[in-house]
Each structure stands twice: as C-alpha cells, then as structure tokens.
Design brief:
The complex is a heterodimer of chains A (911) and B (328).
Chain A (H helix, E strand, L loop, with lengths): L7 E7 L2 E7 L5 H8 L18 E4 L2 E4 L12 E3 L1 H7 L1 H13 L8 H14 L5 H8 L10 H8 L22 H4 L15 E7 L5 E5 L2 H8 L3 E3 L26 E2 L5 E7 L1 H6 L7 E5 L6 H4 L15 E9 L2 H6 L3 E9 L11 E7 L2 E6 L4 H12 L6 E5 L15 H11 L3 E4 L2 H7 L6 E9 L5 E13 L5 H11 L9 E9 L13 H19 L3 H8 L19 H25 L3 E13 L9 E7 L5 E4 L9 H13 L6 E4 L17 H24 L6 E5 L2 E6 L2 E6 L12 E7 L18 E13 L4 E12 L6 H20 L25 E6 L21 H13 L5 E2 L3 H12 L1
Parallel strand pairs in A: 1-5, 6-17, 13-32, 15-16, 19-20, 23-24, 30-31
Antiparallel strand pairs in A: 1-2, 3-4, 3-5, 6-10, 7-9, 7-11, 8-10, 12-20, 13-18, 14-15, 14-17, 18-19, 21-29, 22-23, 22-28, 25-26, 26-27, 29-30
Helix pairs in contact in A: 2-3, 3-4, 3-6, 4-5, 12-13, 16-22, 19-20, 21-22
Chain B lengths: L4 E4 L3 H7 L5 E4 L5 H6 L7 E4 L7 E3 L5 E4 L4 H6 L1 H6 L1 H10 L2 H6 L2 H6 L5 H4 L42 H7 L3 E6 L2 E6 H4 L18 E7 L7 E7 L10 E10 L2 E10 L6 E2 L1 H7 L6 H11 L11 H21 L1
Parallel strand pairs in B: 1-3, 2-3
Antiparallel strand pairs in B: 4-5, 5-8, 6-7, 6-8, 9-10, 10-11, 11-12
Classes of the chains: A alpha+beta (911), B alpha+beta (328).
Chain lengths: 911, 328
Amino acid sequence: MNKPFFSQQIAFELNTQPARADATPGQRLSELLRENLGARDVKIGCDAGDCGACTVLLDGQPVCACLTAAHQVEGRSVETLAGLYRAEEKAKRLADSFQNHGAAQCGICTPGMMVSAIALLRNNDAPTEDEVKDALGGVLCRCTGYRKIIDAVVGAPAIAHDGDGSVGTSIRRLDGQCKVDGTEAFGDDVAPVGCLEIFVIRSPFARASFTFENLASFADATGVEAVLTADDIAGRNIFGVIPQFMDQPVFAEAETRFRGEAVAAVVATSEFMSTFDPRSFPVTWTEMPATQNIHDAQKDGAVQLHHGRDGNVMCGGFVTCGDAQAGLSAASKTVEGHFKSGFVEHGYIEPEAGFAQIVNGRVEVHACTQAPVMDLDSLQIILGLDRSQIRIVPTAVGGGFGSKLDISVQPYLALAALKTGKPVRICYSRTESMQSSTKRHPSDIRLKIGADAEGRITGFDFYGEFDTGAYASWGPTVANRVPVHASGPYAISNYRAESKGIHTHNPPAGAFRGFGVPQSAIAQESLFDDLARKLGIDPLEFRIINALEDGVPTVCGQVFDQGVGITACLKALRPAWQSETAAAKAFNETSTTIKRGVGIAAGWYGCGNTSLPNPSTIKSGVRPDGRVVLYQGAMDIGQGANTVITQIFATALGVPADSISRIGADTDVTPDAGKTSASRQTYVSGNAARLSGEALRRLILERMNVARDAELTFGDGEIVATDAEGEHRFDLSKLACDDERLVLRAEETYDPPTRPLDENGQGAPYAQFGYAAHLVVVDVDTAMGTVKPTKFVAAHDVGRAINPMMVEGQVHGGIAQGLGMALMEEYVPGRTENLHDYLIPTIGDIPPIETIIIEEPDAHGPYGAKGLGEHVLIPTAPAILNAINAATGVRITRVPATPSLVRTEIRKAQR
Amino acid sequence: MNPLTYEKATSSTDALERHDGDAAKFLGAGTNLVDLMREGIATPTRLIDVTGLAQSIEEQSDGGLRIGAGVSNTAVAEDATVRAQYPALSRAILAGASAQIRNMATVGGNILQRTRCSYFYDVAGSRCNKRSPGEGCDAIGGFNRAHGILGVSDSCIATHPSDMAVALSLYDAVINVESDEGTRSIPINDFYVLPEDTPDIENQLNPGELIVSVDLPAPSANRRATYRKVRDRASYAFALVSVAGSLIIKDGLVVDAGISLGGVAPKPWRAIEAEAAIVGSPPTEETFRNAAQIALADATTQPGNVFKTELAQRVIVAVLQDLAGDAQ
C-alpha cells in the first residue's frame, strides 16, 4: 500500500544561491535537485551509488546525490556542474580541456566526471594520473575508455585545434559545448514539469503465467490515471526489428518468456509514484519451469518458445567455400577448441527514458534512441495509427552500443499519452533497464583450423550456437554475420561456418557492438595463436602470411580490388610486438609470481547491412539569410556522427564545418538516415552528406555560373563566389522560399552496393570492410589469477580518418568494452541486474592506449573513409586471452577470464 | 499505516529519546539504507538522522584511538594517526569504495551495512531467509560465486560486504553503543552473530541501541599490518576475498600474528587458530601455508564459490609473506 509521508521544507545553498524545497523523508537529493529545483545537469545512471553520474559537491566534497537523503543537506552547500561552470574559472578551463581531448562522447557521465575533477583541481593544480584515478574512480564511463578524461584533467596538450574542420582534421565535437556545461538534455531531461509518470509491471520470473485481478477497481481505488495492458493496444501487440522475425509483445499475454518482461503499466502522478509499492499491483504470478540454456532448449520435449521455430532454433547462417574437411585432412598441423561466452550488458550510463505528448491530435515521442525511423515503424504497427500521426523526436543519447536500436520505452509512452491525453514520462530504473534490454549473445563455439608447414591455412570448420533469448531482436543478424566474419580478415580457401540462434527463457539477445563477431573472433584468433605456436611460426608473422589482400577472395567469394588494409595494420604492430615480447621475456626471467605476456589479435567488420538495402538520405539547403542548413538525421549516440557527417558535408560544399547550422534528428524534419548501427554512419550517411554537399555546391555554381573551383562564402543574405575572374554575388533575398524556409536545397541518398548471398553464403555482403589489429601487454598474478593489462597498441584501418581525435575516441572506448568482455563482464539473468554486481571497467582498469591510424582508402567511402564503431572491440578480447596464454601457458576458452577462472586453469595446468 | 517521518537528532541522547521502537531507524549517510528503502527491504516509518553526531577522532590516554560513529570513511582513511598506526584500516577503507561513497559513508553505518547478496535484494523473485525468515534460500544451489564459505549455514550463505570492518576486526576494535539503559562496549569480533537458523539477526545490537564510537586499542610496537583485496576489476568492486593481516617478528620468530578475512563469511572472519599456529614459528612460506590451511579447514563451499578456499589461502600467504618481507 502507499505510505503517506510528511514533506518538510529544507533550506540550503545551491550553486552559491539560497534554495528552498519541500523534501519528503528518505527522498534522494538527486531527485530533489532534478525535479523540485530543475537542476537536470545532475544525471542519474543507477540510483545506487555505483556509477557516480549524479556526483555533486556537498560542502565542497564529491558525493553521490542519489544516496544522499535530501534532508541531510539542510544548511549546507550543494554545487552542480552547471553552477560550477557558470561561476568557476577552473571549471571553464576543464570544460575546454574536455572538449579539446574528446573526453566527452555521449556526455551522460560528464557532469559526474567534471564535478569530481573540479573538487580535485581545487586542491591540486597538477594532479598525477593516480590522483585523477582515485578522484574519478567512482564515476563510470562506457564510451571513452577513460584515457581522454585523464588527459583532460591532468591538462595534457590539446588534441583538437581550431580550423575549418575539413576532412582529416581534429576539431572539437560540434555538439560538445552542452555536454561540458551541464545543459545537454537526455531522455529523462526533457519532460515538462507535472507530467504523469509510467511504471511498468514486469515478470519476476524467467517464465510465469499470470492473472490480473480487477484492474478497473485497482484504478478506482488508487486513483491512478490509467492501467495499460495488452488490451489497450489498438494495433498489433508485437514488435521486432526484422520484419520476418517480429515476435515480441509490448505486454505479454498469459505467459512471460523472460524475467523482466512487461505485462502491464501504471500511469499516475509523480506524487502517487513516489510511494507506489509495485507489490500492491493486482497481479498473481505462477512461476513455471524455464529453459535457461541452449542445450536444454534443444532437447526433445523442451518447451517451445515460438510456433514455427522447431527445436527452439530461431534461424541460422551458413557460409562455405572450397572443402573444409579436405583442407583439414591435408593440413600439416591442426588445432581445435571449444569456446564459450556469456551475456554481456551494454551498460550505457543513461537508462532508457523519454516523454510523450499529444500535439494537434498526433502523438510525439521524445526519447533516447539509435533508430528514430524504426521506432516510428514499430509504433505505427503497435498503435494502429497512420504514419503521419506519429512523430519521433530523439533526445541526446547517453550511450547505446546497439541496445537502443530496439524500442523500449516508446510504446508505453505513446500508449499512455494516447490513453490519458496528457504528457507522460518514464525513466527505467537501472535494474529494469538491465532486465528488459537486449544483451550480447552468449556463444558456444567449436572450431577446427589446419595449416600447412609454411603456415598457410588449409582448412577451417566453425560451428557456433548463440543464445538469442526469448525473442529474435537482432538475433538473425548475428546468425548471418558470424559465418561471414568468422574467418577473420584472412584468405581461407577451404572454409565452412555454420551458426544457429537458439531461443531460451533469457532476456532477448540483440545488437551489441560487433553483432556476434567479437565472440567468433575469440575462437578464431585464439586458435590462430595456438596454431602458429604449434607450427613454430611467430604469431604475428603467421597472421601476415594469411592476411587477406587486394584481389584475393574472402570466404564469401567477394573480391576487393582495393582497400584491404589488414596487412598494414598487422605490420604496424611489428615494432611494438618485437620490443614488448623481448621486454616480457626479460621480465619473466626474474619474476616468479607475476608473469608478463604480450598478445595480439586482428579483426574485420563489414560496414552496413548484410546484403540488404541500407540507404541514408541527407538533406541540405540555404536560408534566405545565407545560412547553410544540414538536416542530419543520423543519430549521434556519442560516437560523433553530428561532427563527422558535418565535416564531410562542409568539405564537399567547401565551407568551414562550424558555419553549418545542423538540424535533427526529428522524423518530422529530417529524412531517414537509417539506424546508428553496424558502423554505417560515417560510411553510408557520410556518403549521403557528401553527395548532398556536392549537389548543393553544384547547384550554386550553376546558378551563379562560376568556375568549379570557386570559393564560396555564405552570409548576410548572399553567397559570394570567388574564382579566377573575381568575386561574384548571389542575392538570396530575391529567391522564393520553400515551405522549409530554404531558397536552395539538395537531398541525396546513398545505398551501399552489395549482392545477396547464395545458399553457400557466396556473394558480396558488404561494400567495404574495416580492419583492425590490437596488441596488449598483461601482467598475470599467477597466485591470485588476476590479470592486469598494462598497455595497448591498436592499429586501425579507417580508410580516411575524418576526425582523427574521434577515431582515437572510438578505439579507446572499444578497447575498454573489449577488456570488460574479456576480464569481468557477464550478465547473469536475475542476478547481476545492477552496476555493482555487473562490473564494467573503471578508470583504474584501462591502461595507456597507443592508437595507430592506417589510411588505406576505400573507393566507396566518403573521401575514402571506412566505418569504425564495431571494429574497435573485436580484436581486444582475443588479444588479452592470447597475452594470458603467453604469460602463463594457459589457454582460456571462456570469457570473462575472472581471477577465479584464470586461477583454476593455472592450477589445472600445474597438475 | 504510519507515515514516514524524518527528524534530525541533536545528540546521541536526543537520538535515543526519539527512537520509539522497531519502526524507527537511525539514518547515517544513507548509502545503504536509502537503497534498502527503495528496494522495499527496509521499511522504517521514522528516520532519525544521526549524521553530524560523534564526529571526532580522539587519541585515548591508553594510547588507543576513539573514532566517532559519525566520522566519514574519508576522514578515517586520511587521519594521520590511522595511517601511521593502523595502516590496514586506512587501506581497507580506500579499497572499499569510491571517493564519493567514502566522503558520505560513516563508520557506524559501514559496520551495519547489510549483505549485497542478490537474492536478498530480489524481493519479488527470490526466497531469502534473511529478508523473510523461514522462506528459504535461493542462493544455495543458485548463483553463488560471491557467497560465503566460512560461518555459513543451511539457511544463509550471504557475506558481510564491509572492507573497513575486516580491518577493525584485525585490530580488535571495540564498538561502543548507547541506549536508554546506558552504554556498553562490544568487541567487534563478538559483535556480529552467525546466521545459523536466524540469518535475519546479524549482530548484537538491540533495537534502540546506537553505535556511538569505535575504539582501537593502542598500537603494538613493531606490528606490521596491511590489507589486500582480490576482486574482479581494478577498483570499487566487492571483494572475492580480502585479508587484513599483521605480524610482529622478533629474533627471527613470529611473536604475534593477526588474520582477518573478508568476502568469505557473514562477518569479518578472524582466523584465531591460524594465528596461533604462526606464533612461535619462523616467518616462512611454510609457516604461512600451514596457517592458511588451518584458516580454511572448515570451509563449506558451493559449486559457484569453491575457488574461494584456495584463493583465500593464497591471499593469506601473500599478505603474510609481504609483511615478513617488509620486516626483514
């Protein structure tokens, strides 16, 4: 039952100004600051003191506002980022430094990071790296890999520099200022005051049947505005990201298929919600036997999760060329292994959140997302409304990494707004976010590889099963991608790879940076090391021998006559490989307990959809006043699309990047630039931006009748073109404005050229691949089983680095996630549903990273650029496992390689 | 139903007068209680804020140190006397939580924090004898990698999460409590009670009793002490195993040894027999290995945490060897 409470007014100082607010007993300071006092620069990531995003200064000391009872600040001083930025020179300098290092990517952790850093810098002008790590150790970041943040706080020389932002230059994020001054608005920051709130009722069991008691009388008795169930869905109670595999209900009916699955939602005032006890909701659960691993799911008699998916097999993928078995038989040496990995949680610091309202009879959803147009597609089906009646306005996204491709809060928001007619908001709790969002697929992989005496791969046979959980989500994409990528970036002529996605009563596994490729790379790159050592060939040289090259077919029979950069990546690691392996050998001669190892691994990733249309459209134009406008609908989830796509467009048009007015994303305003996934935005939307910029330029040159190399300047109601003949002026005021207030416009679409895969997986799945190779040095404490990476060298072929600072940012962030996957991260449904039981790397876990940018231009990429977002974590985990192997002789075949696992394997080996 | 109220106590006497039964809770920094209330595990109707009380660290006439229950963890860890004379305490606190949490958390609250067992927290979906006595324990036979191997029972295998308390246990700290009936002092090594068949009862504190301070006995001459924590990531994760250890070595023999274990038991686990086995022996690896065997002789493991026995033994040996090495 709801518990009444007495609120009491408290008085304190907020950012040096007197503040008063009514606080309820036990109310969190974070909530009071955000909701009662509008201080939405205080971000909430976990509400449990684990992430530090809500860090504020209390009498000058950093504390977690989420664990501070609001009453306890009576008479004290509270400072937040926005206040510090306004008032304190140190904060402004730090904000500049964050921008100059790319230390804020998505920006959701930035207030916590900066507030903690300012407290440090007040007492210490020149902190050491260790002091920074201690001061910032309680703030989690999932994007940056922390190194840029350390650089920014210690005041390392700036990376970004002033300039026109043309392709190839490191400028600051064009959308960065609001991330460092506290004004960035994420999913939970945009709702107007007084919104109704939504609470979703979820299954506490992996599988359960349930019945509702009288919901109408519950609503009457409690005074809630509305209760939503499957009965309230006017369209179809189903969603999914792949049309043939749509299978997930908004609200489960009769039976739930995973813990955390929604069955109903309560819509009520914030006053009601502040004391609402979910246990009072009239639902009766009956726990049912659940199948929570892929082996049980495939047994005879196992509960079938979906009709038409016999044996709980969702689907599979298959690629073969040559004769894998014959190749293995002919091998001089073979190796084989069985590799496993668990669920991995995306762990973005911003939980899913948003608000919705009805405007002129249309429903508007403002929420964090990676795919606004796909959200619209889903809502159209669920709501049963005409497309024109729905508007998706994405907020800033506090990290996504694949999971925010699927809808989450959107249907609840839209349904509640439509049912009540009032503005509504929702923000998932951390536990709710972790329970209900998609995960990286657990994998169970068997692989056998053979090579001849010279070290050339002769045969490769891969079979992988993936736990896709209760619903398909992006599982079919994982199943398709894995066989295409499981070879790694190598030339293998006798190849067979088969994958299967299996349903279980686990959370849906979906898209997560790499779509299954990081899992297959662990198996392949680990066995490459084993095979090289068995053959007596240096592991790096073994990879170079087998590396894919221009003109050599991939395992799908696709031949790239240009742009294959893996050899260059591997060769770039040679100096570090030689010096670090020598140093490790010397170290190990005298060290008994701590053993040092150096590991390498490579990876590749095809950019964009696999053999499917994947267009992006970018629109641009000129306003009567001479401003250039870019309608940029590609979601920037921290990776930098807003900056990189603008740089490409500006270069094509021939103007400085910071002169462009950027609009979007908004489904009413921006054309569809596709989803932010599969490392496609720089390549695909970047190309659309290039085409749009080129088309606009062409249009202007034609209208002005000036030379092709004319220099254009925009402003004051005119365009000035300067060519060999002198200055030409184009008066824009005489041109007719269209309904978007443009006098000139250009809209262009780019779709990567691909070809379908045949029944053997032969075809042209991607127009381009990106390539990567990582080296890592680790120290293994053989007594405790702890593994400490001490250095990374990462070589990435990005074709052309549009913004080298942001390339480094991606590399660092990917390595941090790869390190987490390798050493500490495993989501156990029902058990690790928060950020202290589910561990992601902290600032103390990430060693220095040297990034080597390789630019092997791609003919299809804008200015030669290739995608990068996924490549950055694919080699990391196998490189770490190879380093552990080099240090200890132990081959770890399961991630995460926790101290308990590593120690167990070392003990086994010693017997 | 009673409304939830908040009130700030002006003194320990005032706090005790305000405490009127089970439904009242003393509120420290709230780093654990605010969370437990959100989860519906703690359901007080009256919050009596005791932060701001008992804020001093005072040297005692007997050479010991009295730390007020309201002192922040940061203040304890940074105190010059603590760092010099009780280094394992400072290290344990620094290893225990992030700066943000240390700045908030109080000594009294840290001692009383409750287990992080995920089944304990899972009100809707799991059975837990600590939360709902008699209901059963889903951790036994469940996902129990983080759970205890010493002092556990058939009804509960949860661990005590504190790092600080492990160091207090090593130093034989004494907890001073006040109530309407006066004051009493309880050695920390007697303070916590084992779960047996009443895991909901975690310590000797009676309702209405308030921890006011913690006494550290005078430091022993030539005692070396340290704290080591093994966890899954570099910082701010709960311990898989931690060890607070100390040695006094004289003329090539150990004359005093201390071993307290964290992450393995429902309380900071003092390995008294293991300590006794070291005293009188030379500070060799063999001595320490033998002690580590004794310390874990009664371990009761689950499939998920079987690794903890060997890991705990290894951390004990490593800590003692470090101390012995430092002493030479």
